[in-house]
Design goal:
about 450 residues; alpha/beta; D-Amino Acid Oxidase, Chain A, domain 2; nine-stranded mixed β-sheet; 11 helices; 20 strands; binds flavin-adenine dinucleotide
Length: about 450
């Protein structure tokens, strides 16, 4: 199989040494075998698609159905230009609110959990301007690659999934917020990011007329015309069907319970129904990756960041009062994305462990915010309350590659935090490229490991 593109594997995003370009990699003789992907979220399915195109025989295992995890009801933003990690110097000033407030969009509830504490310490250490800047640089590069790969996927598989490319407006409540937005726009421009511009409240209302009422209450916004949105749940369901039709085997409603490891390699995963052997294993199980990795003595720096969404039916086109452009209200940390005749409203980030219960107060808060920002919208019908756990790393950078200190054939593709929908296809392609290099006959290539500890 040959590749018509010439993507450079970003050595920095992988953390360490210089990698060859994909063009040179295609010249290496390569004999793919059987790859087993754990997780049928957007990252696992994207990985399966990439590996299949590279000649691997692929099996996907999931404890539930495709899109059941964080990928299903998320904010729907293909946020290629808004990649600033949560770990930001501004977090220090918000710390008391995070710990004490009951209605803050960010909420931290310390628990008797050493994993939560060690994640938090690493997160706070990452809240420095230099770290945030470097993470932004790496994420922008991965997001740009993801945009290309998602476009390829969309065209080759003729996916719709309520995809829109109607741009995005981020709204800032005050002058201080707008000043920091100006700095971020300048930083991203210097890093080669997409076109963005600061806009006045009146310009916000011109770009998105549904904001006419709310515009008086903001200081301004940032407009990125090239941003897109897609329904992650539909994407997973459609990709599942396409992959199945192309010969990928799916073992659904079957949790991976453990591993059979011999020497330095994983031989098989254990399911209730028996073992499944493979040559390469990809851990793309979102927040579930942590306990699975523990079974191999590995500690992944991934912690759940809980969020919520509602999905409102929007009658008629154009619907009165409902936005067409994606909108982020930064004061409330809520995103709005138009998905066909629906509006997805998502937000909140809670560090409360693996808790998947839907807190009615959080759903009420999303409804109230929607009413505040788009007062002409009718909030009726089934609002489809949803919660999901973002698999977050302290710096906001995903783990892509071999696990440090882990088996030779266990590959990580996890830890995409608040940007998994955006970064999935680029991450999948990076992993595919690494597997290709490592699987070449007589290859002594061993990629630098993705961060984790034993
Ligand atoms: C409220 C909210 C809003 C968001 N908004 C956006 C957004 O607008 N844009 C964006 O880019 N990202 C967004 N995200 C983040 C994004 O949803 C995630 O980063 C992404 O879905 C992670 O995908 P994943 O495939 O790694 O994990 P998941 O989708 O969680 O999939 C993991 C899969 O692994 C399976 N699994 C777990 N353990 C096992 C096991 N032992 N055996 C077998 N299978 C197992 C699970 O069943 C699950 O299906 C948002 C997240 C939330 C919660």
């Amino acid at each position: 199989m040959s590749f018509g593109y010439d993507t450079e594997v970003d050595s920095h995003a992988l953390g360490r040494r210089v990698q060859p370009t994909l063009r040179s990699m295609t010249q290496i003789r390569f004999s793919p075998g059987h790859a087993l992907v754990i997780g049928a979220g957007v990252v696992g399915l994207g990985t399966a698609w990439s590996l299949l195109r590279d000649g691997w025989r692929v099996t996907v295992v999931d404890a539930g159905r495709p899109g059941d995890g964080a990928s299903g009801g998320n904010g729907a933003q293909l946020s290629y230009s808004y990649v600033q990690p949560l770990a930001d110097p501004g977090v220090w000033a918000q710390l008391p609110k995070l710990l004490l407030s009951t209605d803050s969009p960010l909420r931290l509830r310390p628990q008797l959990d050493p994993h939560q504490w060690s994640w938090l310490v690493s997160f706070m250490v990452a809240c420095r301007a230099s770290v945030s800047r470097e993470s932004t640089r790496q994420l922008l590069a991965l997001a740009a690659h993801s945009r290309d790969m998602f476009e390829r996927l969309r065209q080759e598989e003729r996916l719709d999934c309520d995809f829109t490319a109607s741009g995005k407006l981020v709204l800032y409540p005050d002058a201080a917020g707008l000043a920091s937005a100006r700095r971020q726009v300048a930083l991203q421009a210097s890093l080669g990011g997409a076109e963005q511009r600061l806009v006045t409240p009146a310009e916000c209302a011109d770009i998105e007329p549904a904001l006419t009422h709310y515009a008086a209450r903001i200081a301004g916004g940032v407009h990125t015309p090239s941003e897109c949105a897609v329904d992650g749940g539909q994407l997973c369901a459609t990709l599942h069907q396409r992959l199945k039709a192309s010969g990928v085997s799916f073992l659904l409603d079957q949790a991976v319970l453990g591993w059979r490891r011999e020497g330095g390699r994983v031989q098989a995963v254990k399911l209730t129904t028996g073992e499944v052997q493979a040559d390469a294993f990809v851990l793309a199980a979102g927040t579930g990756s942590v306990s699975l990795a523990q079974g191999l003595g590995l500690r992944l720096p991934v912690y759940p960041l809980k969020g919520y969404s509602i999905t409102l039916p929007v009658e008629g086109t154009p619907a009165p009062g409902a936005p067409r452009v994606s909108v982020t209200d930064l004061a409330r940390k809520v995103v709005f994305a138009r998905l066909g005749n629906r509006l997805r409203v998502a937000g909140m980030a809670e560090l409360v462990g693996e808790n998947r219960q839907i807190d009615p107060a959080r759903i009420d808060s999303l409804k109230a915010t929607t009413h505040d920002v788009f007062p002409q919208m009718t909030l009726s019908g089934d609002l489809q309350p949803w919660t999901g756990l973002r698999p977050a790393t302290p710096r906001g950078l995903p783990l892509i590659g071999l696990a440090d200190g882990g088996p030779d054939n266990l590959w990580l593709n996890t830890g995409h935090g608040a940007l998994g929908l955006t970064l999935a296809m680029g991450s999948a392609d990076r992993l595919r490229a690494l597997l290709r290099m490592a699987s070449a006959p007589a290859s002594r290539y061993r990629p630098a490991p993705a961060a984790c500890s034993v």
